[in-house]
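Journal club prep — side note

Before the paper discussion, L.F. wants everyone to see what a predicted structure for a comparable chain looks like in token form. Sequence:
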Amino acid sequence: MSIQPFDDRDGYIWFNGELLPWRDAKLHVLTHALHYASSVFEGERIYNGKIFKLEEHTDRLFYSAETLDMEMPYDRNTVNEACLEAMRANDITNGYVRPIAWRGSDLMGVTARGARVNVAIAVWPWPSYFSPEARLKGLKLDLAEWRRPSPATSPVFAKAAGLYMICTLSKHAAERKGLDDALLLDWRGQVAEATGANIFFVMDGKLHTPTPDCFLDGITRRTVMGLAEQHGYEVIERAIMPEEMANADECFLTGTAAEVTPVGSIGSYTFQPGQVCKTLMDAYDITVGKTAASETSAA
């Protein structure tokens, strides 16, 4: 099965204020972000021509940029409109949006003060992150070797490119074992998150989720917590030790890409996707407009 590379596609990418043909959106090999990870980004979903929680994602992009000492060259409204412009230019009604900001090739070295901050937005069709079969049965997760770092060692609350290095390594290790993804613990040995999604457990009919004190408090995570409370489920944020997973009946991931996806196993711990997972999957699909109950027209 051949995979179409992302640098060789039709369409347009919004790049520093203008729409460029997709194949013309290029960087120099000495781009600072390539060498020193001075890059922040977002992942957003388009459902029926509407970008889900666009403003919240843009706010987080600006927060991440500020955290990495990057001054955004455009205001929030411009970035919001640029996301919509890129969506329309590519005629995407259901897909994925990737805004990204990075330091360019003006300077080469650890210091980057004075280097230009660039902004680009790409949009493309993207189905479920996990296959329908895997989503229905429940994902199989590995227990990752790598751990989420302490806030004293990394800017853990920014959606920064460099923080995903251990996610890539952990997912590769899981895939080599025939698994779907991996669960990372934090530096204390507490349950943290999957490689690109937050995690929830159902214990005694209540939802338990790790306190996001060293990883992203996901926008989808907060959405699902609100939906859970609307459906009468108590949500408890707390420190969760890995051995407590033996007490969980259900488990699921949340994220822009993962949406709401049940988990069938994590290492030797097993779960059975049940009523809570189904209720929240259905509620989320309605909320974002995947079902007829909440379809919206193009913005």
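L.F.'s comment for the group: DSSP finds seven helices and 16 strands in the chain. Keep this in mind when we get to the figures.
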